[in-house]
Amino acid sequence: MRVALVHDYLNQYGGGERVLEVLMEMFPAAPVYTILHDGKKTAAKFAARVAGTSFLNFQFVKDHHRLFIPLMPKAAESLFLGDQYDLIISDTAGYAKGITYNPETTKHISYIHTPLRYAWEAKDYFSNKIFTAAFSDLFNYLKNWDYQAAQRPDLLIANSAFIAGKIKKYYGREAKLAYPPVDISRFYREVKSSKLKAPSYYLAAGRFMRYKRFDLIIDAFANLGYWLKIVGSGPEKESLAMRINELGAANIELLPLVGDDELCKLYNGAKAFIFPQVEDFGLVAAEAQACGTPVIAYAAGGALEIVEDGETGILFKEQTPNSLIEAVQRFEKTKFSRVKISQSAKRFSKENFQKKIFNAVSSV
């Protein structure tokens, strides 16, 4: 069977790219198509498999791709695969599902991380109301395109029940469910010896983007005084560093993106993982749990499918520093079984994901 994989763009590395890596492992002969590809920003993880990019594949666009959002739909459609493949699998938070091909000869399965967030939820995604009002025509165009593109695949798969609900609401389609894969051979609970110190710091990790609410974490821990490590990279890095400096929060460390081995150690060494955003699923939270680490999460979105309050973590109800502070204080008084937490994360295993994808392929 001739298979092609399609991804939105490869100029960053996060949860979506981890899913792509597993799909590449499942279909080792499948080439990857993407709107743009930056090998330096993705540590050349995909370079050997990228077979095609769009007319936007220039360095300036790779560095500032959000400036070219109006052109993304056309860029996706410009990737025409004709009848070269029997099956296309796209994994997307926006545009990859809009790739073009001959539907009479090719089947298409689309793994949806989220409907195009800033098209359907612009008022929530952007804090500036004047900005959203000024570009309302653009958001309507993107919304209409996203709806039409979502009608093309033969089958949609959602990365959480939360996203399956959005797919039904925005696209009018049912979706199968397959949680993103956690590689438990990479992320696992390290058996601690009596010589090792007990966990002494809290941890947060991910792309430094506004909606992920690292600012909220910083404000809370500047008041709490507990040791906090924040790991990642992204456009908000400088503003987060400035915030830490302005608050004089010497207890907060901002660390660069690290490899899986180091990240596994950081998860294992943390008292708890902090997850304050509304996320489609939340792969980093699931990875932390696979390492036996409790998760303190905002009670919304995919976190509700990952965290069981009082058993595998703590849920807080408001996206405010005070609400997070109260959750951390509650956590400090609660005992957790790291063995139980690690076992609960096995439902997010790579093997379960692979089985559901192969079942989906069989169904079409």
Briefly characterize the structure.
This protein has about 375 residues and is of the alpha/beta class. It is built from 16 helices and 13 strands.
Overall description:
It contains 16 helices and 13 strands. By secondary structure, it is of the alpha/beta class. The strands form 2 sheets. Strands 3-2-1-4-5-6-7 form a 7-stranded parallel sheet. α9 crosses α14 (321-332). The mean pLDDT is 92.
| Rg value | 20 Å
What is the number of beta strands?
13
The tally of domains stands at 2
Strand order across the largest sheet: 3-2-1-4-5-6-7
* Contiguous runs where pLDDT drops below 50 for at least 5 residues: none
Q: What oligomeric arrangement do these chains adopt?
A: single chain
CATH structural fold name of the largest domain: Rossmann fold
Strand content: 15-25%
Q: What is the second-level CATH architecture of the largest domain? A: 3-Layer(aba) Sandwich
> In this structure, how is the largest beta sheet organized?
7 strands, parallel
Topology:
Blueprint (H helix, E strand, L loop, with lengths): L2 E5 L7 H12 L5 E3 L15 E3 L6 H5 L8 H6 L9 E6 L14 E6 L4 H4 L1 H4 L3 H6 L1 H15 L4 E4 L2 H11 L4 E2 L23 E7 L6 H11 L3 E6 L3 H10 L5 E4 L4 H10 E6 L7 H8 L4 E4 L4 H4 L6 E4 L4 H12 L5 H7 L5 H14 L1
Parallel strand pairs: 1-2, 1-4, 2-3, 4-5, 5-6, 6-7, 8-9, 8-11, 9-10, 11-12, 12-13
Helix pairs in contact: 9-14
